[in-house]
Design goal:
The protein is built from nine helices and 19 strands. α2 packs across α3 and α2 (150-167) packs across α7 (298-310). It is of the alpha/beta class. It binds zinc ion.
């Protein structure tokens, strides 16, 4: 069986292993024939040796956390052969903490969770993989060409759920949402915003390429330039760039009783000048909320599957700007101009 592996902590050890072992039954009752994995910045960080952890007792990590496959067998009867599924990335910590104990492993408090293809658990970039039935999420058969978008969609489904949970602290009738960054997370966040009936604005650096039309075809408005120059104050901001200057500007820009959800992971060390007193004053006097959001639990994966099912399939297919066959795997992990989502076939 073929698999994409790296040696954690050692840069540029990415390779295609031809004789990887079949997934052991200990990895789960459901055996899945892989169709594809999506590639993201986390994969590139792992390849660069900055991140990633091999399963205990092994020196290699099989990559891949944005999965899609077809069930070969499930002896528990939960899933049927042929079902289109994605595997949930994070598994609860073994202690477990109070959140993992109730299935909210996305909110793990002790950091002892494991993650397929990232942290102490092999990923899905192999021809066959196994998961337990409660960690497989079924997709509508029509989503075969785009189902690997379920993982990034689960991340934005969680972000939107938490925005709404914050929103109901008081009377709340949001009208406008600003999404900063038109990568896969930003575009999917915009999709879920339009599905909620909001007036959605997306701001990105790109002045050409596929992003402006993708935003327009959602019925949303595309902007470039500075957040500070926008001529409206959004009720909701979903920040997907992680760029420090953008983060500071959206906290300042959001309207009264506004909610800013930060989803981008910044690198440390970049400093931007901030008038912390003015920023604090703006947040306090307007009852604003700024919060971070990462990962997703099963409830969010299920919501994401519903959201993809309601979306325009052709629009989702346009998010996938390159499909790379397995024998050219290395190219899937190299960024090209105008890439949005790159998918590696298995
Ligand atoms: Zn936990």
């Amino acid at each position: 069986m073929r698999a994409i592996t790296i040696t954690p902590g050692q840069p540029n050890t990415l390779r295609l292993v031809e004789d990887a072992p079949e997934p052991p039954e200990a990895e789960g009752a459901v055996l899945v024939h892989a169709i594809a994995v999506g590639v993201c910045g986390t994969d590139r960080e792992i390849i660069a040796g900055e991140y990633g952890e091999a399963p205990p007792g092994t020196g290699q990590l099989i990559l891949g956390h944005e999965s899609l496959g077809r069930v070969i067998e499930d002896p528990t009867g939960t899933l049927q052969p042929g079902d289109l599924v994605a595997g949930i990335v994070r598994l609860p910590d073994p202690v477990p903490c109070i959140n993992c104990a109730v299935g909210e492993w996305d909110m793990c408090r002790n950091g002892l969770y494991t993650e397929h293809g990232i942290k102490a658990r092999h990923g899905f970039a192999r021809e066959r993989w196994r998961v337990e039935p409660d960690l497989a999420v079924r997709l509508a058969p029509a989503l075969e060409s785009v189902g690997m978008l379920l993982e990034p969609t689960s991340v934005v489904a969680k972000a939107w759920e938490h925005i709404e949970r914050v929103g109901v602290r008081a009377r709340w009738e949001p009208e406008t949402a600003l999404v900063t960054g038109a990568g896969p997370i930003g575009l999917l966040a915009a999709l879920l915003g339009t599905q909620r009936g909001l007036e959605v604005h997306v701001l990105d650096r790109s002045v050409d390429g596929p992003k402006p039309a993708l935003v327009a075809d959602l019925g949303a408005t595309y902007h470039t330039g500075q957040v500070a120059d926008l001529d409206f104050e959004p009720d909701i901001v979903v920040e997907c760039t992680g760029a420090p200057s953008v983060v500071v500007q959206v906290i300042d820009k959001v309207g009264p009783t506004g909610i800013v959800c930060l989803t981008g992971v910044s690198s440390a060390g970049k400093q931007v000048g901030v008038d912390a007193g003015a920023l604090n004053r703006a947040v306090v006097l307007e009852n604003n909320v700024v919060f971070g959001s990462v990962n997703a639990n099963r409830r969010h994966w299920t919501a994401a599957a519903v959201a993809l099912g309601k979306a325009d399939l052709r629009w989702l297919e346009r998010l996938i700007t390159r499909r790379v066959p397995l024998d050219q795997y290395a190219d899937a992990y190299i960024r090209h101009d105008n890439d949005i989502k790159v998918v590696l076939g298995l």
